[in-house]
Amino acid sequence: MKITRAEVEHVSRLARLALSEAELDSLTDEMDAILDYVEQLKTLDTEGIVPTAHAVPMENAFRPDEIRPGFTPEQALSNAPDRADSAFRVPRIIE
């Protein structure tokens, strides 16, 4: 699959990128190499392989959810510089 310089220029305009002539030439070659590699990958037989398979066995690193007591409003507001009843008071920023 060959990508043309015009296609790279079109994509760069869509992405609002100002590329020099050298950058356009370089990106055309690099994108062409990437697309060639993707074509090679399409020839692989992936029948029977789970889409989320990994080369290395993976386990979930997250701990199980446990219900634990949280802070009381008094504890949560204990270090507040300014408070109003059971809420933080902050300076007004919108007039």
Tell me about this structure:
- This protein has 95 residues and is mainly alpha-helical.
- The protein has helices at residues 5-14, 21-42, 73-76, and strands at 83-84, 87-88.
- It has a domain at 5-42: Glu-tRNAGln amidotransferase C subunit, N-terminal domain (Histone, subunit A, Orthogonal Bundle).
- The chain has a two-stranded antiparallel sheet with strand order 1-2.
- A hairpin with a 2-residue loop joins strand 1 (83-84) and strand 2.
- It starts with a helix and ends in a 7-residue tail after the last strand.
- The mean pLDDT is 89.
Chart the SSEs and their pairings:
Elements: H1 5-14, H2 21-42, H3 73-76, E1 83-84, E2 87-88
Antiparallel strand pairs: 1-2
- Looking at the structure, the CATH topology of the domain at 5-42 is Histone, subunit A
Strand arrangement, major sheet: 1-2
How many beta-strand runs?
2
Strand content: under 5%
Please write the string of helix (H) and strand (E) elements.
HHHEE
Radius of gyration from the alpha-carbon trace, in angstroms? 28 Å
The CATH class label of the domain at 5-42 is Mainly Alpha
Termini distance? 59 Å
| Secondary-structure content class | mainly alpha
Share of helical residues: 25-40%
Q: Which stretches are low in confidence, meaning pLDDT under 50 for 5 or more residues running?
A: none
Total of helices? 3
The average pLDDT is: 89
- Named at the architecture level, the CATH assignment of the domain at 5-42 is Orthogonal Bundle
The biggest beta sheet is recorded as: 2 strands, antiparallel
Approximate shape: flat
